[in-house]
């Protein structure tokens, strides 16, 4: 089972510690049935290590689920934690220190910041597949 956290605004999902970009599904396409009995619609597709991950959302209970495929074979179905603006800081603070987070906030607000702390934040974010610009656009 993979740990998956979806940052919807960024169209990125954290899979086992790394953030990967996804592709939005523009049309309402059937994505399976939810455990509540509702219909799920395809929301996003991701590619990870040769596998495809489909994230679908239930039209009834709004639950998000990931189906992992290896070519045409379904490997697993896992619930996805969707992170909104309120919870985003908690996710980022698992990667950055409070000072690094504050440096990003200061930079996007055109306030003074410590450039070496911001540089450390940039390195840490790049390592997991995020950029300061992406994080800054969401905080």
Question: How would you describe what is shown here?
Answer:
25% of the residues are buried. Strands 1, 2, 3, 4, 5, 6, 7, 8 and 9 form a nine-stranded mixed sheet that branches. By secondary structure, the protein is of the alpha+beta class. The model has no long low-confidence stretch (mean pLDDT 91). It is built from four helices and nine strands; from the N terminus they run βββββββββαααα. Strand 5 (39-48) and strand 6 form a beta hairpin. The protein has helices spanning 85-92, 98-108, 115-128, 132-138; strands at 4-7, 12-15, 18-24, 30-33, 39-48, 51-58, 64-70, 73-79, 81-83. The protein folds into two domains: 4-83, no CATH class; 88-138, no CATH class. The two termini are 30 Å apart. It is elongated and about 50 Å long. The longest helix is centred in the C-terminal third of the chain and has 14 residues, at 115-128.
Outline of the structure:
This protein has 2 domains: 4-83, no CATH class; 88-138, no CATH class. The chain is built from 4 helices and 9 strands, in the order E-E-E-E-E-E-E-E-E-H-H-H-H.
């Amino acid at each position: 089972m993979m740990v998956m956290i979806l940052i919807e605004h960024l169209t990125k999902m954290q899979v086992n510690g790394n953030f990967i970009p996804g592709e939005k599904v523009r049309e309402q396409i059937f994505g399976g049935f939810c455990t509540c009995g509702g219909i799920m619609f395809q929301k996003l597709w991701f590619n990870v290590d040769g596998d495809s991950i489909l994230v679908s959302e239930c039209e009834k209970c709004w639950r998000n689920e990931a189906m992992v495929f290896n070519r045409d074979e379904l490997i697993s179905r896992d619930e996805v934690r969707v992170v909104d603006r309120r919870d985003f800081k908690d996710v980022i603070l698992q990667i950055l220190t409070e000072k690094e987070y504050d440096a990003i906030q200061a930079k996007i607000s055109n306030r003074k910041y410590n450039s070496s702390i911001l540089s450390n934040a940039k390195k840490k974010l790049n390592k997991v597949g995020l950029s300061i610009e992406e994080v800054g656009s969401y905080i």
